[in-house]
Amino acid sequence: MIAEKNNVISIVYELRADSKEGEVVESLTSENPLTFLFGTGGLLPKFEEQLNGLKTGDNFEFLLNSEDAYGPIVENAIVHVPQSVFEVDGKIDENLMKIGSMVPMMDAEGRRLNGQVIAIEGDAIKMDFNHPMAGNDLFFKGEVTDVRSATEKELSHGHTHAEGGCGCGGSESGECSTDNCEDDDCKSDGEGGACGCGC
């Protein structure tokens, strides 16, 4: 069986920023592989293209340039928000306002976004809503550890229900999406599985 549309693929990999010698930014092992439904648009298209046709035991090594990954850094995705945005029950949550904190937020259309606090400037918080890997080329080196047919439930939900990596896929906001989930059994709580930068 090979990696192709509507099969479930499990992979392990090491992801480095910018090149083969770059900083390791994610490492998925056999204890915690990324398991996903192939060909449904849940992962970066060029990422899946590189895996297409591979079978269990096949190794892979490839570089995705930033344009094929999370794109360039978008300057207007770096914004100032008032400290009042960090209020919980009438009190400002100081833990959220630490430089480097990733804060889940919602835009005016109700879409979930993750923003990183990059500066505190008086009563305003400077946040970066770019994907954390925006502007970076991505170098992947890994192995396909399993390929199987998807179950009917996985096909109807559009994602896997396996242990390990969330396999839930990415979105333009750089976060995992549970849009196709009909119930809570398939939603990831962010623990026990990597979302994978490949998402």
How is this structure best described in words?
This protein is mainly beta. It has two domains: 7-70 and 136-186, Chitinase A, domain 3; 75-128, Thrombin, subunit H. 7% of the residues lie in helices and 34% in strands. The chain has helices at 45-51, 152-157, and strands at residues 7-17, 24-28, 34-37, 59-64, 78-82, 87-88, 91-92, 102-106, 112-121, 124-128, 138-149. The strands form three sheets. Strands 1, 2, 3, 4 and 11 form a five-stranded antiparallel beta sheet that branches. Strand 6 and strand 7 form a beta hairpin. It is elongated and about 55 Å long. The protein starts with 6 loop residues before the first strand and ends in a 42-residue tail after the last helix. 32% of the residues are buried.
Strand segment tally = 11
**How many whole angstroms does the radius of gyration measure?**
18 Å
CATH architecture of the largest domain: Roll
Report, as a whole number of angstroms, the end-to-end distance: 22 Å
Question: Which residues sit in consecutive blocks of at least 5 with pLDDT less than 50?
Answer: 163-199
Shape: elongated
Main sheet characteristics: 5 strands, antiparallel
Helix content: under 10%
Number of helical elements: 2
Question: What is the helix/strand order?
Answer: EEEHEEEEEEEEH
Task: Using the coordinates above, name the CATH class of the largest domain.
Answer: Alpha Beta
